[in-house]
């Protein structure tokens, strides 16, 4: 009887497992169709220098405009495709869309760089640099330095020699790297020294709560201290209020990104935001209030 029962349990388990696999496959096919049917969008979140209020760049953040479910954030679909071939396909779509946007903005006289998030498997894929070079060559009017790449610490961690080689070759093309979500991985100290990155982005979770949580504040302070020691520029994510901004400036971090400055927006909303921003004197005059 026990044996019989055991077999049944396996049976139930097997078919549930099958169903889950099938559902996943179906979802992936649906996402693949989202790419070909042009349902993906890029939203852009400004990055500013708090010393003078200058806008220094924009981070491209992908969204899925789903016909039934509405606008989906990356958290709703990235886990589904992580590690599959769709991951590279999404990455290529995002790079191409960012280059097209840079081209369009160039014609309108908006000359801000775009930061694109690159997934670990995409960066470490065999022909990443070749394909990127090809894409860049299709947009000769876009200065290469206007494209910047954001990678996670864990990306480099999974295959350091390969990551370093790819980064070196991209930098030869003129492309800067930012290390994203800094502080959430481990052995951050070593990476700060080893990785040829041009910007360190302090993870939003620490910044967001730093005004109330002494532990988070300690991490933010330590990252700022280390980045200054290693002479690396840094940017704080998750700057939700002007109080965050004041505190960060006092600690020695001048670049910021967060809801307090702007939420990610469609490219069409950018011109209006840019002119609004230049009128926000509370933010643009921050440095004079904080610095002696
Ligand atoms: P990330 O690269 O660290 O991007 C910052 C995330 O923080 C964005 O979430 C942004 O909307 C959110 N954020 C910005 N400021 C604030 C703030 O002040 N408060 C709070 N609470 N949140 C803030 P989003 O757009 O949902 O993206 C989540 C993550 O998905 C990104 O984190 C990035 O790792 C990934 N992602 C987004 N777009 C792409 C993409 O095109 N390719 C890849 N591979 N990953 C992407
Ligand atoms: Mg990012
Ligand atoms: Mg981040
Ligand atoms: Mg993140």
The CA-CA distance between the termini, in Å, is 82 Å
Q: What overall geometry do the principal axes of the alpha carbons give? A: globular
Task: Name the bound molecules.
Answer: ligand C2E, magnesium ion
How many strands, which pairing sense, and closed or not: the largest β-sheet?
8 strands, mixed, barrel
SS class: alpha/beta
Radius of gyration (CA) equals 21 Å
Mean pLDDT: 91
Low-pLDDT runs of 5+ residues are none
Q: Estimate percent helicity.
A: 40-55%
Strand content: 15-25%
The secondary-structure element order is HEEEHHEHHEHHEHEHHEHEEHHH
Q: Tell me the total number of β-strands.
A: 10
What strand order characterises the main sheet?
1-2-4-5-6-7-8-9
Organism: Halomonas marinisediminis
Protein name: EAL domain-containing protein
Domain EAL: 24-278
Short description:
The protein is of the alpha/beta class and 292 residues long. 53% of the residues lie in helices and 18% in strands.
Task: Write a structural description.
- An eight-stranded mixed beta barrel has the order 1-2-4-5-6-7-8-9.
- It has 292 residues and is an alpha/beta fold.
- The model has no long low-confidence stretch (mean pLDDT 91).
- It has helices at residues 2-36, 78-81, 85-108, 120-123, 128-137, 153-158, 160-173, 188-194, 204-209, 214-229, 242-251, 270-278, 281-284, 286-290; strands spanning 40-49, 54-66, 70-72, 114-117, 147-152, 176-182, 199-202, 234-236, 255-256, 265-266.
- Helix content is 53%, strand content 18%.
- The longest helix is centred in the first third of the chain and has 35 residues, at 2-36.
- One magnesium ion binds at residues 59, 117, 150, 180.
